[in-house]
């Protein structure tokens, strides 16, 4: 029986739910979009290399196609749900975090019997007979720009109780990637053309029996609701130092939550860092007005006839984290005239085609690519030398300061634009003795001409 249109009435709660679902469906497609790296993602490639009596041998590789976002210690955690009743007989280059209930197996015991499987990378120093290429770095994966040689991570697994042909095997579901915390959303696995492999001498090409891909994208909003870094500013032409905004990454609440931050000279610092039950993922920051683990300071240092110079300092206020292979991404309209970067590596990103206003900066290997925990060594710094484009260059209205700054791929909190160090008004400066004598001379001369 047809329902009359007049009977389709929604309550206020029903209208709210409909609007919420519509908004969620729209935002879920765009929440992970990064305008500075629109094509950045982590692609998981699953290559079946050989069929076995009850399953197959596969090599799983994660490729980090993000330009500046990497996976740092303690590394990635990959999970999925098997489509049927698959098990993992053995693994090389990685391991399942739980074995699960394998009590029904007699004789050979599988490596993992859980239907919801969670895999981690092996650590450096793993015996060679348990390694494959691109494994065993503790789950750390570099960004594609920063170090292409370490921008992939692989492991091999032998799967049982699975299909033994490309028509009977079933693709796993519900892939998840933690790196090491939340932030990544993975799509469904899609069967693609089998991967091809070229021999070292380049004279023979082989291919996988079956391949599927999973694409995972990052959203800072999903990773955490509070920022992780902030920016402070200063200049040679103004004594004002613009600090990070107050409570940029949270506020001090030692009264209600003791231990939320630690004073640098506190006698309880060591016990707070090494105390029982402390997670290495939870930052323990020095007590500051901004409460950010990372502060990036941009100082307009010098002004030359045809050049101008900037000093950048990155300070770590986190007592629990060494930032390995850290990087900065900075937006400024004068990066198309960047001539020299001292003691940092750099690369222009060109996210908008021909417009070159974005640069990626990172440390030099074995020199300053490791940003130490908070303390006397918890900072790195460099200087940038720009050539002036006189059609656009100015120190007025905050032009000399960056538009946006990212640390390890996360957007940093900038100070309010009206607080930027302002260029002093030359008319308000005190007149030098030489200028005063000159003005007096002309005043006397004018008076003599008029009075005669």
TrEMBL record:
A GO term from the CC aspect: plasma membrane
UniProt KW keywords: Glycoprotein, Signal
Matching Pfam families: COB_C, COBRA
Signal peptide as annotated in the record: 1-32
GO terms under biological process: cellulose microfibril organization; plant-type cell wall cellulose biosynthetic process
Residues passing through the membrane, by range: none
Superkingdom assignment: Eukaryota
InterPro entries reported for this sequence: COB_C, COBRA_pln
Record domain COBRA C-terminal: where: 228-421
Family per similarity comment: Belongs to the COBRA family.
Protein name as annotated: COBRA-like protein
Gene (UniProt): LOC109722907
């Amino acid at each position: 029986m047809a329902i009359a249109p007049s009977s389709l009435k929604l309550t206020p709660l029903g209208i709210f739910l409909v609007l919420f679902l519509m908004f969620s469906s729209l935002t879920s497609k765009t929440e992970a979009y990064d305008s500075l790296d629109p094509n950045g993602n982590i692609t998981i490639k699953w290559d079946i290399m050989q069929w076995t009596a009850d399953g197959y041998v596969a090599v799983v590789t994660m490729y980090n196609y993000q330009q500046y976002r990497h996976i740092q210690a303690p590394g990635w955690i990959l999970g999925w749900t098997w489509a049927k009743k698959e098990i993992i007989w053995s693994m090389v280059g990685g391991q399942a975090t739980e074995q699960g209930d394998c009590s029904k197996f007699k004789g050979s015991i599988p490596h993992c019997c859980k239907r919801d499987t969670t895999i981690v990378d092996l650590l450096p120093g793993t015996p060679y007979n348990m390694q494959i290429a691109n494994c065993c770095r503790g789950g750390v994966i570099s960004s594609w720009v920063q170090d292409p040689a370490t921008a992939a991570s692989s492991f091999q697994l032998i799967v049982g109780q699975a299909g033994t042909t490309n028509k009977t095997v079933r693709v796993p579901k519900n892939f998840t990637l933690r790196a090491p915390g939340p932030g990544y959303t993975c799509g469904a696995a899609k069967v693609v053309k089998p991967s091809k492999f070229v021999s070292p001498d380049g004279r023979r090409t082989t291919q996988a029996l079956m391949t599927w891909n999973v694409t995972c994208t990052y959203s800072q909003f999903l990773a955490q609701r509070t920022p992780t870094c902030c920016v402070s500013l200063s200049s040679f032409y103004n004594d004002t130092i613009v600090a990070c905004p107050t409570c940029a990454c949270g506020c001090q609440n030692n009264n209600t939550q003791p231990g939320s931050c630690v004073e640098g000279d506190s006698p309880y610092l060591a016990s707070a860092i090494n105390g029982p039950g402390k997670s290495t993922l939870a930052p323990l920051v020095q007590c500051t007005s901004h409460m950010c683990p990372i502060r990036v300071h941009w100082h307009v240092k010098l002004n030359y006839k045809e050049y101008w110079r900037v000093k950048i300092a990155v300070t770590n206020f986190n007592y629990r984290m060494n930032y390995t292979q850290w990087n900065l991404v900075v937006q400024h309209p004068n990066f198309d005239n960047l001539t020299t970067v001292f003691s940092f590596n750099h690369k222009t990103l060109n996210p908008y085609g021909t417009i070159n206003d974005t640069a990626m900066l990172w440390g030099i290997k074995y020199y300053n690519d490791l940003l130490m925990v908070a303390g006397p060594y918890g900072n790195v710094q460099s200087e940038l030398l720009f050539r002036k484009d006189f059609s656009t260059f100015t120190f007025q209205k905050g032009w000399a300061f960056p538009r946006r700054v990212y640390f390890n791929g996360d957007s940093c909190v900038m100070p309010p634009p009206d607080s930027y160090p302002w260029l002093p008004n030359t008319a308000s400066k005190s007149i030098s003795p030489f200028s005063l004598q000159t003005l007096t001379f002309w005043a006397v001369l004018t008076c003599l001409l008029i009075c005669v």
